[in-house]
Amino acid sequence: QTEVTVLRVAVNDEQQAYLEQIAEAFEAQNEGVTVSFEYVANEAYKSRLPTLLQSDARPDVFYSWGGQTVVEQVEAGFLQPIDALLPEGFADTIPEAGLQAYMVEDQLYGLPQYATEVVFWTNTALTDQAGVDIEAIESWDDFLAAVQQLKDAGVTPIVAGGQDKWPLHFYWSYLALREGGPSVITDAMAGETGGFENEAFIAAGREFQRLTELEPFQPGYIATTYETASGMFADGAGAFHLMGDWDYLPMRERSTSGEGLPDDQLAILSFPAVTDPVAPGGEAATLGGINGWAVSNSAEPEAVEFLAFMMNAENQREAGRQELFIPIAEGTADEMENPFYIEVAEHIAASSFHQIFLDQFLGASVGATINDISADLAQGVMTPEDAAAQVQEAWDFR
Amino acid sequence: MTRGHLARNLLRLAFLCIVASFVLAPMLATVLGGFKTNAEIRTNALGLPAIWNTQFYGSILSDPAFWRYLGNSLVISIGSVVLTLITGAAAAYVFAQIRFFGSRMLFSYVLLGLMFPFATAILPLFIKVRDMGLLDTWWAVILPQTAFSLSLAILLFRTFFAQLPRELFEAAYIDGCGYVRFFWRFTLPLSAPILATVGTFVFVQSWNNFLLPLVVLNSREVFTWPLGMMQFRGEYVTQWNLTLAFVTLTILPAIVFFLAAQKYIVAGLTGGAVKG
Amino acid sequence: MTHAADPRLSARARLRRALSNGRVTAVLILLPPALILFTLFVMLPLGESAWFSFFNWNGYGAPEDFVGLDNYERILGHSVFHTAAGNTLKIVAISLVVQMPLALFLALLIYRKTPTNALFRLVFFLPYILAEVAAGLIWSFVFDGNYGVTASIAQGLGFENVFILSDPDWAFAAIMTVIVWKYFGFHMMIYIAALQSVPEDQIEAARIEGARRTQVVRYVQIPHIRPAIAVSAFFAIIGALQVFDVIIPLTNGGPSNQTHTIVTYLYTFGLTRLNIGFGSAVGVILFVGAVTVAIFYQRIFMKRTEA
Amino acid sequence: MAEVTLHNISKSFGGLTVLPDLNLTVPDGSFTVLVGPSGCGKSTLLRIISGLEMPSGGSVRIGGTDVTFEEPSKRGISMVFQSYALYPHMTVAQNIDFGLRLAKVPAAERKARVTEAARILALEDYLDRKPSQLSGGQRQRVAIGRSIVRQPQVFLFDEPLSNLDAALRTQMRVELAQLHQSLDATMIYVTHDQVEAMTLADQIVVMKAGRIEQVGAPMDVYDRPQTAFVAGFIGSPRMNLLPGTAIGRADVAQVGIRPEHIGVSSSVGTWAARAQVVETLGADTVVYAKVDQVGDVTVRLPGNQRLKAGETLFLTPEPQNLHLFDDAGLRMEDPS
Amino acid sequence: MAEVTLHNISKSFGGLTVLPDLNLTVPDGSFTVLVGPSGCGKSTLLRIISGLEMPSGGSVRIGGTDVTFEEPSKRGISMVFQSYALYPHMTVAQNIDFGLRLAKVPAAERKARVTEAARILALEDYLDRKPSQLSGGQRQRVAIGRSIVRQPQVFLFDEPLSNLDAALRTQMRVELAQLHQSLDATMIYVTHDQVEAMTLADQIVVMKAGRIEQVGAPMDVYDRPQTAFVAGFIGSPRMNLLPGTAIGRADVAQVGIRPEHIGVSSSVGTWAARAQVVETLGADTVVYAKVDQVGDVTVRLPGNQRLKAGETLFLTPEPQNLHLFDDAGLRMEDPS
Ligand SMILES: Nc1ncnc2c1ncn2[C@@H]1O[C@H](COP(=O)(O)OP(=O)(O)OP(=O)(O)O)[C@@H](O)[C@H]1O
Ligand SMILES: Nc1ncnc2c1ncn2[C@@H]1O[C@H](COP(=O)(O)OP(=O)(O)OP(=O)(O)O)[C@@H](O)[C@H]1O
Ligand SMILES: [Mg+2]
Ligand SMILES: [Mg+2]
After folding, report:
1. Tell me: the pLDDT tens digits for D96-137?
2. Residue D119 is part of a domain; what is its CATH number?
3. Phi, psi of B245 (to 5 degrees)
4. What would the pLDDT profile of C131-140 be if each residue is shown by its tens digit?
5. Which residues form the ABC transporter domain (chains D, E) (predicted)?
6. Of D161, D194, D229, which closes a domain?
7. Residue A123 belongs to what H/E stretch?
8. Which protein residue's CA is at the shortest distance from atom 3 of ligand 2?
9. pTM attached to this predicted model
10. Number of domains in chain E
11. Cα D258 to ligand 3 centre (Å)
């Protein structure tokens, strides 16, 4: 009798049903194996995981955002390499960029399940009202102009959940990508070209502040949580909302009516390019998550089997069909019908580089610092130079 | 009596009413908010609701999770109270009644606990709880909660026990009653007021504790109500009315409990705290 | 003719009696449970905190990266820590300068036992028994710029919506309001209890000697309740050092980390960012601060009131 | 002139009437003692005079002025409390000085008056001590000192000695008597100790349930109690109150005879009695005896009488010292 | 046999020696009263006998057995405390029963003994009450009841009546005397009230600063005090202790004369005196007078003497009632 325990950040009911169903199917095929899921709320999950991993209550498989966190976990010896345990050729079904997030020194310690992208959700009713043509927004300058135009028309240009800070860090991260090109983060991590004090990061701060000087956010955005902001956007409180594709369903639920904006008033706008980047190549990069699962060192081979089962093409395709998320496995996004998901999937596929959220990618401490400086930049209480220096300091003292 | 008296009294009452409204207004807004639609809250946060919508309260009351949260809180609070009273009273009895080598030092050692919050040691505390395999159990909250309550409890108990007439012990002693028996037969029954006081404080503290459960309870099955409330708040973040209804329903038991136990709270402040 | 008592004999007899009357058993049975609990869950974790504080440790594995006093150095050089410490001091100040006088004034108004006074007492004490998180939620509703009470009032007065909690200048003032709101009743109760124990005849004696109401307060009542004031100040200071739960739902330390207290700082920068060593060092600093306050306090105030 | 006159004073607390309707004149310079059982309203009456309590009806005049609605501090009175009511945080000097400071008396004069009071009360050596460092008698003196410096027309005392032990009480009693002689002020003194009442008073006021039973000089009250209540209340050991039949008078409800007014013989006498308990106190002997048909009789004999419990005695009440009371408990003026 | 013998008992608390070296025999069946000023070690001595306190040296024998290191409950003693020390959460019956239960006395016998004790003390109607529902005298009786049921050989009382008011005290005093007669047990009784000492004791033990000054029957102690201290301590009002020169004897350090042993005349006498304060108590009159070269003299006269403060009197001490003391304060056996 083998038991596989899986720890997951709390999800909504549909997703939970989806996971349970997979577990049941797996149990049916494998006599003597039981799979049990546990769910923990988001913030608590992050702060509790390290200690949990040291305990006897360590899960076999747990939810992960990839990146530096995985590196740290590997260094502490909590994870086990799974290449050898996976079915032959399984790794090939998953795009290289996705696997990279779970790889440390060429060893695979987990699998990605889905990718997400951060985009400007747009309320077209409002942009139309202000006479803004979102199709025409190509560059950051265009975007700033559109913001000004919206403001002039008396429309709140952007809603943002400033209290949680991470919604603001998207701006800084994206701008850094655009300014510094795909490798800007890895170079900084390697300590090359001035690390996080590289000109690209300073430029990112500067560009961000060009935006915030327009006062584009709803009043009191800095005391607004992500959830509130997303509900407000769905209530039509602002024209743009820089947020992941995952927000599509939740923002509806959070709206006052429970309905949210009708699909025909909703559009997706990719984060615009900057005109004169510090380093080239950043214009087609995407920012988002490569969320998946890591396997702990105590896991039996059955755990990896289950992981592979969960990630098989059939289940991936099913998730796409239910619009739970955008599956990562090659060619499994084909059954999706939701236009927004399809669009995002195309983006990611076309992306020159998919950067994982910096607050996850760089580990908890540096990530939180980036969130902090993003909020401070937004409020104009910090200079771009200081912001970059603080990130570098946090990185040094990781 | 005289006119000056009357005027002064009126002034006094007026001032008291102003402070009272400062105190009550937020709570009132909370209670009433639970009856309003979100739209109405936006335009009329303070006033009476136009229509008394009871479905928000209803939906929370009919949610089994809500009752589970309350149940968990209740079990944990009662567990903490009982454990604190028994272990704390026993130790305080020894400190008050028996002089032995090192007793003063041990007492000062225990009093150190008065001076720092959970937070200072929350992480090692978590590891301790985890190593004992208690995570996600009621004990994970009860034991540390008790340990952190012990300092104050022992201080108050000792003060009270020391005030019990010494002759009572001597009379019983001459009757042939030893120390341990005296503790059970006399000290505990005679200390009902201070037991009630300390019990009340520990209960309220445990009932309201947030940080400790936050760290040691992962499973929603064992969530206490403050965790449940924050969780709920996260889920229904723009629906202030639901949140307010939830808050109202969870603070009600505390208020009811307070009304029942206020005598002991006051007594504790007079007897223990002020003299201690 | 006196034969001196044989000290050895009587010492042995004493021990025999101590054993037979259960004194030793009592110590051995009744004391350990509390001591073990306390040591295990309070003192040991505290000691471990001190240990961890010398490591750069993210909570994974065992602490190995010994960094000496680096954590302390970083904390003391961190501007947010300065803000947090400053805020904590502000809370201490507001408790001592606003909250306690308010509480004392109210206590003087309602310490006599009448039904109306009992009602006011109840009302004023109510916030104290509310959970901090509940209080935080309630007030975050009050301060909510879109929905809240302040929003209603602002709209009613025709102002723009005000977002108190997102204004770095005002957010902490708001937090201090909530703290005063929540805790003044507690201090008031301490004073009431003390005032009720002031012998009535001393007040009457002063009245006969021609003291006005304010003079009675100043020369009779306040000197009398000085021990209670000392206790309440002690609670106010130690309590201020521990403020945490209220802040989380209100501002979570924001905006721009302007509203951290030492404990939220510890929680945010230590626990949620997995700088366990760093956080432990904050804990140690807090603990040392609290103990210092307590010791000084005892030296200065408690002694004087005893005399 | 500091005569105190109470005119038709009444006082109720809520529904409870404590003083129904009371008239009393306290002559200028007199030492008037209010006695009565616990709860009879002595303190209430004193507090009405002091102004700490307002009467429900009637008026209070001090030195001819109506002060019924006057503040306590404006009445020219001072008060000494049973518990002394010293301010624990002030030194003896500050305690005594406090009232003067409030009255804004010039510093030099304050100092002179405090020194004078301390001298009178032999407190010079203690002026810098806190009350907690004083003995009971010294505290009592400080309380009195606090009264003296204010130079009131009327001193009020509410059981000032009842917290002291017997020896100190005797000593302070003598000191109080001397103080009254030297100050020559009006003093009103509440006690329920009848030795104090008898020894200190010029005028005794015996109260019962809010009413005055008798007012008079101590020996008048002792020798001619106007009611059976006063007869039983004043004197120790208590006066024997026996049924009228004990002396063969059916028209008399009660006959009173003090223990010292009964003769004892081993052979002849009016009543045959059996000694129950004999207490030899040294200077005198008290015999608790039982007389058939009459009841328990207490007898007090001078010196040390060698009597034993169980002995048979013959008792003879002195006929000139009988007190007769009618059904209403009032004195009958014919001891025929 | 329940004689109590204390042999070379000493006791120190830390550095403070309370009892230096004390020997005392309490005869079987006696009522022995320990008196002495506050702090002289009476309670300490009683607590050493009870076993609540261990002596620093010496031995305690009860009924012939050495119990110095015995547990209190094994000594066959019982103790009644000043504050009664009733168990507030138990009923009267349970209070009385508690010691028996601990001693594992069979239920039937326990019941019988409790009933008997209640009968003796007239407590039958109160057995189900809690102590808080009883009056002071009833509480005191329960405390005594608790002692009785244990059928101790020795009863110890530590100021059992001092919390009662004067009237109750007198009553309980009489009851205690009767109880001693009926139980016939050894009783050791601590008090600082000398009326109690005089009236209750078979044997009075007068203590001073941890030493025994005199042991004897009450009237012996009253009539022939062995030291000046005892002379001044026993008797109320206090004996006058004057310098020997007052009676023209240079070889006598102090001469004592009781207030009732001084004759008063308005014309002739040994000493010319001025009355300072006159206290008329009804049954007798106490005069505090001043005699030049001799000092303050207290005189007690029977009945109500019409004397006034300030009057000149002539005092004559009765020569057969003089007590002479030497430099060491010891009685001189020659009242020549
Ligand atoms: N403030 C008050 N409120 C209600 N009843 C009162 C108050 N003060 C006194 N009384 C009642 O009035 C009655 C007389 O009280 P008072 O204190 O004058 O008696 P007293 O003669 O001084 O008695 P004692 O000798 O015990 O001091 C008592 O029955 C008492 O209960
Ligand atoms: N436990 C103790 N520790 C230190 N000193 C003590 C203790 N018990 C008594 N004493 C001291 O011993 C002396 C005698 O005390 P004890 O109680 O025997 O006096 P007492 O004669 O009973 O006086 P009182 O009449 O006031 O009861 C006192 O000076 C007292 O302070
Ligand atoms: Mg009174
Ligand atoms: Mg004593």
Report:
1. 999 999 989 999 999 999 999 998 888 889 999 999 888 888
2. 3.40.50.300
3. -60, -40
4. 888 898 888 8
5. 4-234
6. D229
7. strand A110-123
8. E13
9. 0.82
10. 2
11. 28
